[in-house]
């Protein structure tokens, strides 16, 4: 393969030997691994006790709390029809309703329940990422990707939060696992992916960026008109059903017909109104976004990206990063859906680096190289603990003090708007006010 001219999108049907002397690549069964990953993510969700971005609370928890319990605040995006109720419904509202029916809607359950549920979702997504790694890069890379995802500071910091980006990421990874990257004839598997892609689109319309690339890549592999027509019919039928579900769900929430995906794209792409919340240069995702979320794993990502023969998902990362660079407003969490894929290449780079250092005959060089790789892991673990427990912890801590106030109390937040959670972290109808910063 080294001297063979090869299309970077074409599949490779065989991998180098999975067995290395002194190294075992065996992982537990899928069920054992799933239990471990779910338990890990639940503990991860309970560890995170800091503030990151308003959308974690104001675009999911607060909306669901108002819908189920009758009080809460809707930001201006909901008044303008820019958000779909699908995400609050899937991630939070159903849980709130169950807790209310059972009479278990204590403040602790209302606060931590959604985090635990998202932790379970994240654990399932982790399992499918490992299954994708095994089929795409070979079983020998899978343990290293497992190490990468459970130590990645940004994954641990964000994937268990109730962002729409977090659930979008989980569903996208499962969808890519079922997507026929190596085949054009697996129609059943492809249909699963299309349905999952549609759900991701309902949760966050920017998921279309990923699925447009995968669809074009898939069409490029097809040589039969009948296969092309079948694919188009599958996409069209699921697409129409998706729009119908979106219209019906949001009609029940808004009380009027609202086509949220259209409003979302007009607002963010045509009008670039997201710039109201800050502007960034076109290169921000490359020079600041990716280096920050990969942190000490950036060198391993480069090693994996350069040496891995499978390039289609690497090109997907480049495509998503490019499209997300077009709007002037950018955020770290916008890159979350492609971070797990990037960690696959980190795992591949980790494996190659470890094996390379293992070939040194001089014991000092061998140990020095492995020590350096261990430092990269320790840095990520340290960042996980700092950002989860220390950085911006006060906005969360202050809400526990507010919950202790008398029911006749009134609290005015003289801070930049949306700097703390709101009723979803108090779960009492006391008077809360904050400084409004809605665009006019």
Name the descriptors.
two-stranded parallel sheet, 18 helices, disordered N terminus
Structure commentary:
- The chain is built from 18 helices and two strands.
- A two-stranded parallel ribbon has the order 1-2.
- It has 440 residues and is mainly α.
- The protein has helices spanning 30-47, 55-69, 76-79, 86-102, 107-137, 142-151, 153-158, 164-178, 187-203, 208-221, 225-254, 260-270, 284-294, 298-307, 312-324, 339-358, 363-389, 394-403, and strands spanning 410-413, 431-434.
- Helix 2 (55-69) crosses helix 4 and helix 9 (187-203) runs parallel beside helix 11 (225-254).
- The chain is globular and about 75 Å long.
Entry summary:
By secondary structure, the protein is mainly α.
Q: Please identify the structural class as seen in this structure.
A: mainly alpha
Q: Per DSSP, what share of the residues sits in E-state strands of 2 or more residues? A: under 5%
Mean pLDDT metric: 88
**Can you list the strand order of the major beta sheet?**
1-2
State the total count of DSSP E strands: 2
The span between the termini is 59 Å
Instruction: Based on Cα principal axes, name the global outline.
Output: globular
The topology string of helices and strands comes to HHHHHHHHHHHHHHHHHHEE
Q: Flag low-confidence runs.
A: 1-22
What percent of residues adopt helix (DSSP H or I)?
55-70%
Task: Count every helix, treating DSSP H or I runs of 4 or more residues as helices.
Answer: 18
Rounded radius of gyration (Å): 23 Å
Question: Which sheet architecture does the biggest sheet show?
Answer: 2 strands, parallel
């Amino acid at each position: 393969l080294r001297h063979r001219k090869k299309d970077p999108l074409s599949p490779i049907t065989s991998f180098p030997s999975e067995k290395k002397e002194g190294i075992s690549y065996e992982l537990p069964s899928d069920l054992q691994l799933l239990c471990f990953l779910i338990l890990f993510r639940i503990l991860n969700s309970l560890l995170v006790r800091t503030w990151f971005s308003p959308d974690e609370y104001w675009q999911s928890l607060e909306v669901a709390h108002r819908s189920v319990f009758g009080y809460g605040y809707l930001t201006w995006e909901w008044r303008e029809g820019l958000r779909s109720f699908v995400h609050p419904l899937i991630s939070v509202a159903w849980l709130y309703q169950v807790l209310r029916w059972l009479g278990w809607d204590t403040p602790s359950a209302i606060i931590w329940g959604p985090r635990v549920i998202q932790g379970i979702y994240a654990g399932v997504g982790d399992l499918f990422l490992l299954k994708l790694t095994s089929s795409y890069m070979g079983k020998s890379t899978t343990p290293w990707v497992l190490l990468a995802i459970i130590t990645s500071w940004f994954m641990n910091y964000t994937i268990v939060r109730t962002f729409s980006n977090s659930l979008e990421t989980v569903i996208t990874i499962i969808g890519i696992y079922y997507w026929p990257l190596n085949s054009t004839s697996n129609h059943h598997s492809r249909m699963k992916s299309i349905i999952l892609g549609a759900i991701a689109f309902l949760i966050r319309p920017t998921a279309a960026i990923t699925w447009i690339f995968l669809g074009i890549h898939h069409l490029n592999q097809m040589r039969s008109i009948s296969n092309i027509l079948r694919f188009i019919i599958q996409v069209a039928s699921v697409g129409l059903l998706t729009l119908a579900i979106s219209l019906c769900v949001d009609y029940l929430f808004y009380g009027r017909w609202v086509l949220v995906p259209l409003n979302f794209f007009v607002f963010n792409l045509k009008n670039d109104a997201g710039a109201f919340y800050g502007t960034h240069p076109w290169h921000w995702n490359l020079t600041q976004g990716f280096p920050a979320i990969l942190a000490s794993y950036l060198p391993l990502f480069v090693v994996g990206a350069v040496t891995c023969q499978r390039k289609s998902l690497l090109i997907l990362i480049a495509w998503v990063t490019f499209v997300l660079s077009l709007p002037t407003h950018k955020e770290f969490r916008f890159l979350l859906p492609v971070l797990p894929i990037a960690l696959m290449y980190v795992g591949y780079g980790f494996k190659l680096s470890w094996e390379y250092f293992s070939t040194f005959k001089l014991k000092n060089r061998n140990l020095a190289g492995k020590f350096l790789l261990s430092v990269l892991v320790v840095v990520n673990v340290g960042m996980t603990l700092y950002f989860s427990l220390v950085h911006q912890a006060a906005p969360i801590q202050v809400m526990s003090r507010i919950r202790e106030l008398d029911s006749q109390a009134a609290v005015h937040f003289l801070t930049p708007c949306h700097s703390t959670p709101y009723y979803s972290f108090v779960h009492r109808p006391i008077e809360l006010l904050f400084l409004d910063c809605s665009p006019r």
